[in-house]
Amino acid sequence: MPTPIITDGTTDRVPNAPRVVLPSAQTFADRAARFAQLARGHAMGEFLQLMGHVAQAQYEVFDARPAATPSAEAVQRSLNYGMPPLSALSTPRDAGWRADLREIVQRVRAAGGPAAALAAVDALTDAEAEALADRILAGSTLNADAALVPFVGAALQVWFARAASALDVAALEKFDVPTVCPVCATRPVASVVRLGGVRNNLRYLHCALCSTEWNMARIQCSACEQDKGAHYLSLSAQDNDGSDATAAARRAEACDECKTYLKIFYRDKDAYADPVADDLASLALDLLVDERGFARSGPNMLFHPGGG
After folding, report:
1. Pick among 3.30.390.50, 1.10.10.10, 3.90.1670.10, 3.30.565.10: CATH of 3-17+177-296
2. Is the full-model pTM beyond 0.85?
3. How confident is the model at residue 6 (pLDDT cuts 50, 70, 90)?
4. Which residues, including other chains, have CB under 8 Å from residue 217's CB and lie 6 or more apart?
5. What are phi and psi of 35, to 5 degrees?
C-alpha cells in the first residue's frame, strides 16, 4: 500500500526563504551535468546522453541574445491582478526562439546527435516551427512530432527562461495560483525538496517551460491543492509500505482527489537531482503510476507525450 504523506512542518514558507526563484544559464549547465551522470549505466543511457547534449547547447545559447521583455500591458496586469507576465499561451514570441533552435541543433549535431531528427528540424519552415511550438505549449503534440519535440521544446525553454531571468522577482509575489508557474502559467514538470541554505527542506515546484521555481507546501496536491488522499508511490515495494522511507530519492506524489500525480525529488537523498533530467530518467515510475489509474499533471517539454 502507498505511504500516506507525513506532515513535516513545511506547511508555511520559512520567513527568509524566497517564494519564487528565477532561472539562469547555470540551470542548464547543472542539468547537462546531471544528464551525463544519469546516462552512465542506465538502460536509457543513449537517450539521456543526447538530452545532456541538448542541455549543454541550451546553456551555450542562453546568453546569445537579449531577453524578450513582456509588454507594458502584461507587466501592469501582472502587478494589478497577480497574473503571470509571460503567459506561455498568449505571449507573442519573436524570431529569437527560432535562432535558439538553429543553434541548439548545430551544437547537438556537432556532438553526434541523431542526423535524421536534426535534419527534420532544419527542414521546418518558420510557419511549421511556430505551429509545432504552439502544440508543445498547449500539450497537444502529435505522434509525428515525437522526434522533433526535444529540440523545439529545448529552444522554447531557453527563450522563456531567458525572459524569466530578466524579470523583477518582487513583482511576482502577488501571484496566488500555486498550481502553475507565476511567470508563464505553465504546469510544473516536477518538484524538488531543496537542500541547504534558507530553502533547506522546502518543496519547490519547477516550471516545465521557463525553469522558474516556486514554493508550495508538501502536504498539498500540486494540481488541485487538496491535502486529503495524497500519498507517495515509488518503484521500490519497500518504499511503498514505509519500511524504507528514506531510501527513495524519486517518488510520485499521487492524489486520490483529482487522480493526478507529479514526481518529487529529494536533494537530501540525491544532492544533484534535477527535475527535468531525473524525470526523464525515471519513466518507469510513470508507467507504474499510470497503471494505478493516475494521470500525470505536468509536462516535460523534452519528451512526447510529455503530460496529461
Report:
1. 3.90.1670.10
2. yes
3. very low
4. 10, 11, 12, 203
5. -60, -45
